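Input record (one chain):
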Amino acid sequence: MPNDARKLADMSTAMPAPSGAPGLGDIGQIAITVGDVARATAFYRDVLGLKFLFSAGPNLAFLAAGGVRLMLSTPQGAGEVGKNSILYFKVPDLAAAHSAIVSRGAQNERPPQLAAQMPDHELWLAFVRDPDGNLVGLMSEVRSR
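The corresponding structure, as predicted from the sequence alone:
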């Protein structure tokens, strides 16, 4: 079995599927609707530090957020600028990451604060906005000692 087919077979058994439907694997790509792809690319690359992958014309750009591809696009029949789902990026040091991102030009929405006390860790969150007003979450799970 070729590697790609083996990976697909492994993914299909990773999660039980309802009624014989194929199981879902990891998220591969998230689309964000923006007003200006060049401006948004600069923000996600230079301010948030994501790896730029490629552009496909002036209205489409792709960046890497770990193993997930982020697609920046102008409205293409659906979606409104600034009204997207919230992306939450995991960071090891929330205060340092938030401070650095704001210092590079992100609009601060909410500084780091405790969101939830779990039995074995604390969930800390902070938020910034991209140039189109989309909320970007930063999260850190701090393990109890």
